[in-house]
């Protein structure tokens, strides 16, 4: 079981690193689109509504895609004063409750996406014409990966290991 566990850890680490790689590419795309907008306005007196929409999509996607890496490596925003003040089983239970809260957040968010996309999934973005399902896909992928990483961290806690190490 330990070999599978480390295999799962390596797979989640690679997936989260791939998400960060895509996020970095999106950051380059945002910078390129902003420069293109400035050049189009100042040199050609024209706007690029599609570039604005693409930059917003890239920015939101970048944030969502970076979060699984941060959670996997324990670099996410967390309030740890209570857990650090405890030890042994009490500390483990406190950390497990945090992971369960993360799972609850992921579950509610995915349900919200499901309900929202039942209506909005039929429409496309105004400037680019991209179906809403594709616009929200990076967030959906991120939330699913967050849930899997949280389950992984919960499993590590149950086996008495540090939840933040791959």
UniProtKB/TrEMBL annotation:
Presence of keyword Thylakoid: no
Residue stretches making up the Tripartite ATP-independent periplasmic transporters DctQ component domain: 31-159
UniProt superkingdom: Bacteria
Transmembrane segments: 20-39, 54-72, 93-114, 134-154
Keywords of this entry: Cell inner membrane, Cell membrane, Membrane, Transmembrane, Transmembrane helix, Transport
Subcellular localization: Cell inner membrane
Pfam families: DctQ
Family listed: Belongs to the TRAP transporter small permease family.
Function of the protein: Part of the tripartite ATP-independent periplasmic (TRAP) transport system.
Record's protein name: TRAP transporter small permease protein
Species assigned in the record: Vreelandella malpeensis
């Amino acid at each position: 079981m330990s070999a599978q566990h480390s295999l799962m850890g390596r797979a989640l680490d690679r997936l989260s690193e791939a998400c960060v790689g895509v996020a970095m590419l999106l950051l380059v795309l945002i910078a390129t689109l902003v420069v293109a907008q400035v050049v189009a306005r100042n040199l050609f007196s024209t706007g690029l509504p599609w570039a604005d929409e693409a930059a917003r999509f890239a920015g939101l996607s970048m944030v969502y895609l970076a979060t699984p890496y941060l959670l996997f490596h324990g670099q996410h925003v967390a309030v740890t004063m209570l857990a650090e003040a405890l030890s042994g089983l009490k500390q483990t239970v406190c950390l497990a409750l945090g992971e369960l809260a993360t799972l609850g957040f992921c579950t509610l968010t995915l349900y919200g996406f499901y309900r929202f996309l039942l209506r909005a999934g039929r429409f496309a973005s105004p400037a680019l014409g991209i179906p809403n399902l594709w616009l929200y896909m990076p967030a959906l992928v991120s939330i699913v990966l967050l849930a899997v990483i949280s389950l992984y961290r919960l499993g590590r806690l149950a086996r008495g290991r540090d939840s933040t190490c791959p």
